[in-house]
Amino acid sequence: MSRIPWEKVLAVTPFDIFKLFLTAAIILFVNKIQIFNDRLSALLIALPLTSVLAMIWMHHGGQSSERIANHAGGTFWFVLPTLPMFLIMPWMLRHGWTFWPTLLANCLLTAGFFWLTVFVLRRFGIDLMPK
Q1: pLDDT tens digits for 38-88?
Q2: What sections of the protein cross the membrane (predicted)?
Q3: Number of C-alpha atoms within 13 angstroms, CB side, residue 94?
Q4: If you count Cβ atoms within 10 Å of the first and of the last residue's Cβ in the chain, which end, N or C, has fewer?
């Protein structure tokens, strides 16, 4: 992984503020929908809205097609280790686990699945975490 230019990461422009509020508004909207319809909320959150927005922001920021393609491909592989959480978490909650221990356990499991995915994919020539 290349050196992260923190001065650029931490620099905030007016357009960054716009992106922040639009992205936050989408999340808030989905959360408000959840109050009335958990299935519709789940459908909306399952849509890759944040990934699509990120790619739009990347394109708007002048990123190359290669960078956007790398982002999309990496997102695919990074989504896979998160999927078991959406089966394990409801099972745990329905079997007497309380919310915070369930969330912690699933975060740890997801991190473990993430590193397992990185290790397995390296064996097939796909390096999600280049040095």
Answers
A1: 889 888 888 888 888 899 999 999 999 999 999 999 999 999 999 999 999
A2: 9-30, 42-60, 72-93, 99-121
A3: 6
A4: C
Measured CA to CA, the distance from residue 52 to residue 68 in angstroms comes to 10
- Closest to 114 in 3D by CA, of 93, 89, 83: 83
Q: Tokens 């708007």, residue?
A: 60
d(CA 75, CA 128): 10
In contact, 5 and 28? CB cutoff 8 Å: no
pLDDT in tens, 84-107: 999 999 999 999 999 999 999 999
- pLDDT, tens digit, 9 for 90 and up, residues 112-128: 999 999 999 999 999 88
CA torsion angle for 81, 82, 84, 90 (degrees, to 10)? Answer: 170
> How far apart are the C-alpha atoms of 110 and 83, rounded to whole Å?
8
Q: Decide: 131 and 1 in contact? Cβ < 8 Å.
A: yes
Neighbours of 106 (CB within 10 A): 19
